[in-house]
Amino acid sequence: MLDSLPPEILFYIFLKLPSRTLILCTCVSKPWRSLITDPAFLLSHLNQSNTNHHRNRNRLLLLRRCYSTATKKAERYSLHFDSDTLGIYKELKLPHVNWNQSFKLVGSSNGLLCLLGQNIFFWNPSIQRFLALPWPSDIFTVYGSPYKYALGFGFDSRANDFKLVRLVYIEGGPPVYDYELPPRVELYQLSTGSWRQITDSAPCYEILKSQWTQIFMNEAVHWIAFIRSRRGFRCVILRFHMDGEYFSTIPLPDCLVNEFPQNLKVAMLGGELCVLQCGWYPFGNRYVSSVWMLRKYDVVESWTKILSVDPSQGLGMALGCRENGEMLMTSRNGELVSYKPENQIVKGLGIRGAQDSFFLDYTFVESLALLNEGKRIVNEDYEDEDWELES
């Protein structure tokens, strides 16, 4: 019966279906597969998913955490409902790629995750497709060595394309950590499957490779960045605009400008840009955990401290703001907890992980990204780690 419907009616029906159901529909007939894999439909379905997310329909939270046993280290990814108990919607299984290692989660955008291991990967857990990226050119062999780099991942809605930017730092001379030269910049586009150099010069700010957390919002990747001086550090938010492919900065609150970079993380809470301050200060023998929010994007005067946690409560980094007004945070013993700022009540959620390994994405949507690229992961309902990749 459905086969007799006009394509424009099928288009509308398919827009209402979740990603996993649409994958099954591609196996029904060639016309259905042709419609679902058409770039125009993929974009419309993504827009529909984002609209539902903003209306809080079937809102899902992506949670990543690491843990270790006596024999190995591992990481887990899962989708949760924003319910009182943070009930689990689905466990996400990382594909087995022939080595026993953990990944660094670079970022998440429009249902696609960027992971860094021995290689760089794009992964869509909703439809279980996985793409290994080629390594960019070895810039350091041309411009100098040694080098380090930082990555930023996001989506260019104007070009309808996923992009990954790499900042490569060339050593400018002594001392070892004095990077006087601006980083060289390379950009990967999913649509072309290749890297190219960006001619726009990047500011001489450094991003800590050990923890370059990022947030993608307003068409830009945001990092905590800094420059070194004889008096310590000067920190800012560095951003790369995916649509125009250029850099800019956002000043931090005055009290955070000279903070240790490792104590700061950029985040998005309640749809607003935030900076998380969390760390132990031995000179004052005190532990600080606070959240600053930029109430009006790009208006420096709108920085506001929205949370300051009593050290006696044993809480660590804030991860997200829930629909009920509570904050999801980590405890210093490695548990995910829900915190009510108005009465300072802390409720454990029974989810544990290694300290500083938690990542929470409130913007995750199930999408069809990578449907026409990469490899399909088969044997999804497996009991061990022996997955297979199929073209």
From TrEMBL:
Which SUPFAM superfamilies does the record associate with it?
A: F-box domain
The organism's place on the tree of life at top rank: Eukaryota
Its name, as the record gives it, is F-box domain-containing protein
Q: Which NCBIfam families match?
A: F_box_assoc_1
SMART domains named in the record: FBOX (SM00256)
Q: Which residues form the F-box domain?
A: 1-46
Give one Pfam hit by family name.
Answer: FBA_1
Species of origin reads Cucumis sativus
Q: Which InterPro entries does the record match to this protein?
A: F-box-assoc_dom_typ1 (IPR006527), F-box-assoc_interact_dom (IPR017451), F-box-like_dom_sf (IPR036047), F-box_dom (IPR001810), SCF_F-box_component (IPR050796)
